[in-house]
TrEMBL record:
Keywords noted in UniProt: FAD, Flavoprotein, Oxidoreductase
Cofactor field: FMN; FAD
One GO biological process term: steroid metabolic process
Taxonomic source organism: Sutterella seckii
Domain of life: Bacteria
Listed SMART domains: FMN_bind
GO CC annotations, alphabetized: membrane
GO molecular function per UniProt: FMN binding; oxidoreductase activity
Residue ranges occupied by any FMN-binding domain in the UniProt entry: 15-89
Name used for this protein in its record: FAD-dependent oxidoreductase
A Pfam family annotated for this UniProt entry: FAD_binding_2
Length: 573
C-alpha cells in the first residue's frame, strides 16, 4: 500500500442534489475517520446510508463498498470524495478498491436451515405478500432476501395502488368500477412504443386481475394492516382508480411503510425472513419437481427442503448487461434507475435452470423523466408541473403529447430529449444556469442559437417553436393534441433547454406463467412446485407502456394468489 501523508483532507464533490463537502482523516496507511461537513442532500434519505458506507469504509479499510439503493448517487459521491482525499494525501485510490473475492457457495460449510414448507425468494412487495398468504394458510414459510434489509423496490416506491370497486372507493362515493379500469388500461396500451411482440397485453388476464383487485385490497387492509387514504385523489393516468397511501411517518416513503407492515405481518404469522441470504440453486426431484432451494449468506450455505417455491426476485432494472442484451436503447439510463439495486434478474437464471422459459420482448418500466441533477426540477417546471412542459428532440421536433402520465418510453426513443422553457419566471429559470453544460442545460437569446447549442437543425427548431407558439395563442395544440390548459406560449427570451432522460422503475418481463402464476416450461406445462410473481411474471399485462399504480397491483395480487397456492401444494398429503 502506498503510504499517505497523515492529516485531515477536505474534498468537495457533486452529489445528487448539489455539492457535498467531506472531511477525511488519514494516517500513513489507514482511513481513520470520515465526516460529511456540508451537504445539499435530503437528510431523511441519505443520513442512514451515509453512516452505513462510512462505517463499512473504516471497518474494512476499503473503498469497494456498495452504494446504497435509494441513495446511490449520494453514497457514490461520498466514496468518490474519500478516494480524492487518498490521492491528495499521496496515496493511490485504486489500491483501496481491490477486486472482490468471488465466493463459490457450493464450497461453503453446510449449516442448519429452518424447516420450510414454502420458500419465497425475494422480500419485496410480491414476495412478502406471498409469504403472508402462505403463512395464513398454515405453511411454514422462509423468505430469502439477498439485500441486508427487506423491502426491495417497494421500499423505494410512492405506494400508489391501482384498484377498482374497493370499499375505500365505495365509501367515498368514488365511481371506480372494474370494467372502467380494465378499459382505461387496455386503451392506453395502444400508444405503446412501436416494435413490440403481438399479443400483449393479454386482455383476459388484465380483466381478471382488475376484477380481483378489490379482494386483494381488502386483504391488504384488513389482514395485513396496510393503510390507504379514505379520500381517494385522482392520480395521473389512472384517475379515481388510484388508492393513495395514508400519510406515513414523517420523512418515510409510503412504500417503505407498506414494506414494514408486510414484514411485520409475515413474522407475526410465523414466517422467517433471512436477509443477506441469496438463493443460488433450485433443488429438484428425479421427475423435475421442485424439492427445495440452496442458499448462502457468504459464510455458510443452507439447504431448504420444500415442495413449493415462489420466485419473487424482481426484474433486472439494475442490471446493465441484461438491459443491454434485451433492450440496448435503455442501457444509457440505468444510472438514474429507481429499481432496487438488487434487481439483477437472479430469478431468471434460477427458473431457466429447471426448464422455465423467459418471455418474449422484455421491456423497461419507465416511471418518469429527470434532469441530470434533482435540484434542477423545481426550476424547470411551471405552474402546471410536468403537464405543462414542452419537449423537443435532437431533430428540433416535438415528439410526444407532453401531458400524458408517463413520458419515459417516448423519451427513450430519441437520441436526445430536451425540455424547453422561456424566461416568464426569470428568477426560477436563471437558477438552472448553476448547472450549465452541454449535457445538462443551455440557454440562448433566440431559437436558432438554442438549436446550435443542443445540436438541432436551426430551421427545424425555429419552425417547431413558431408553430407551437401560434397554436398556443389560439389555444389548440394541432401537432400533439395537448390539453389547452397545459399549453402556454414560450416567447420571452432567453430560452432554456434542459436535457432529460427516462427514469427506469423496473422491468416488464420474467418467465412464462399460467393464470395461477405457475411457472411454465418450454412445452408450456407447469414446473411442479414453482410459482413466479411480480416482475418475474408481469409481461402479459403490458405492451410497451406502463400504467401508474399497476405494478403494485400485480405484485400484491400475484403474491397473494401464488403464496396461497404454494401453501396448498406444500401441505398436500
Amino acid at each position: 500500500m502506498t503510504p499517505m501523508k497523515p492529516g485531515v483532507y477536505t474534498q468537495k464533490v457533486v452529489a445528487h442534489n448539489g455539492f457535498m463537502e467531506v472531511e477525511v482523516k488519514l494516517s500513513a496507511d489507514r482511513i481513520e475517520a470520515v465526516k460529511v461537513v456540508k451537504s445539499d442532500e435530503t437528510p431523511y434519505i441519505v443520513d442512514e446510508p451515509m453512516k452505513q458506507v462510512i462505517s463499512k469504509v473504516i471497518k474494512d479499510q476499503t473503498l469497494r463498498v456498495d452504494t446504497v439503493s435509494g441513495a446511490t448517487r449520494s453514497t457514490g459521491a461520498l466514496l468518490r470524495a474519500i478516494g480524492e482525499a487518498v490521492e491528495a494525501a499521496g496515496g493511490v485510490s485504486s489500491e483501496w478498491t481491490p477486486d472482490p473475492v468471488v465466493i463459490d457457495p457450493a464450497k461453503l460449510p453446510l449449516a442448519d436451515a429452518p424447516k420450510a414448507d414454502v420458500v419465497v425468494i425475494g422480500a419485496g412487495a410480491s414476495g412478502l405478500a406471498a409469504a403472508a398468504a402462505a403463512a395464513e394458510a398454515g405453511a411454514k414459510v422462509v423468505v430469502l432476501e439477498k439485500a441486508p434489509e427487506a423491502g426491495g423496490s417497494l421500499a423505494l416506491s410512492n405506494g400508489v395502488l391501482a384498484a377498482a370497486g374497493t370499499d375505500i372507493q365505495k365509501a367515498s362515493g368514488t365511481p371506480a368500477d372494474p370494467a372502467g379500469l380494465a378499459k382505461l388500461w387496455l386503451e392506453d396500451q395502444k400508444r405503446s412504443v412501436r416494435g413490440g411482440v403481438p399479443g400483449y397485453p393479454d386482455k383476459a388476464r388484465v380483466e381478471a386481475l382488475v376484477k380481483q383487485s378489490a379482494d386483494t385490497v381488502a386483504w391488504l387492509t384488513k389482514n395485513v394492516g396496510l393503510k390507504f387514504s379514505a379520500n381517494p385523489v385522482a392520480a395521473d393516468g389512472i384517475g379515481a382508480y388510484a388508492l393513495m397511501p395514508a400519510v406515513s411517518e414523517a420523512g418515510k416513503p409510503a412504500g417503505a411503510a407498506q414494506a414494514e407492515a408486510l414484514l411485520s405481518y409475515v413474522e407475526k404469522k410465523g414466517g422467517k425472513v433471512l436477509t443477506s441470504t441469496s438463493a443460488w440453486k433450485l433443488i429438484t426431484d428425479k421427475d423435475g419437481s421442485i424439492a427445495g432451494v440452496s442458499a448462502a449468506d457468504g459464510k455458510n450455505r443452507f439447504e431448504f427442503h420444500a415442495r413449493a417455491v415462489v420466485l419473487a426476485t424482481g426484474g433486472f432494472g439494475a442490471d446493465l448487461l441484461k438491459i443491454t442484451q434485451r433492450q440496448p436503447r435503455w442501457a444509457a439510463f440505468t444510472e438514474i434507475s429507481k429499481a432496487a439495486k438488487t434487481d439483477t434478474g437472479d430469478g431468471l437464471a434460477l427458473a431457466e435452470s429447471v426448464g422455465a422459459r423467459e418471455v418474449n420482448d422484455s421491456w423497461l418500466i419507465g416511471v418518469g423523466i429527470a434532469p441530470a441533477y434533482a435540484p434542477m426540477t423545481p426550476a424547470m417546471l411551471g405552474p402546471r408541473g410536468w403537464k405543462g412542459i414542452t419537449l423537443i428532440n435532437e431533430k428540433g421536433e416535438r415528439f410526444v403529447k407532453e401531458d400524458l402520465p408517463v413520458l419515459a418510453d417516448a423519451v427513450s426513443e430519441q437520441r436526445d430529449a430536451w425540455l424547453v422553457l422561456d424566461s416568464t419566471e426569470h428568477d426560477k429559470a436563471n437558477r438552472l444556469m448553476a448547472y450549465f453544460g452541454y449535457e445538462t442545460v443551455v440557454n440562448a437569446n433566440n431559437w436558432e442559437e438554442l438549436a446550435r447549442r443542443i445540436g438541432a437543425p436551426q430551421d427545424k427548431l425555429r419552425a417547431t417553436m413558431d408553430k407551437y407558439n401560434a397554436d398556443a395563442k389560439l389555444g389548440k395544440d394541432s401537432v400533439m393534441g395537448r390539453d389547452p390548459e397545459n399549453f402556454a406560449p414560450l416567447t420571452k427570451a432567453p430560452f432554456y433547454a434542459v436535457k432529460v432522460k427516462p427514469v427506469i422503475g423496473g422491468t416488464m418481463g420474467g418467465v412464462l406463467t399460467d393464470r395461477s402464476w405457475r411457472v411454465l416450461n418450454a412445452k408450456k406445462t407447469p414446473v411442479k412446485g414453482l410459482w413466479a410473481t411480480g416482475e418475474m411474471a408481469n409481461r402479459a399485462f403490458y405492451n410497451r407502456v406502463y400504467e401508474p399504480g399497476t405494478g403494485l397491483l400485480i405484485a400484491y395480487e400475484s403474491g397473494r394468489e401464488a403464496g396461497a397456492a404454494a401453501a396448498k401444494e406444500a401441505l398436500k398429503k
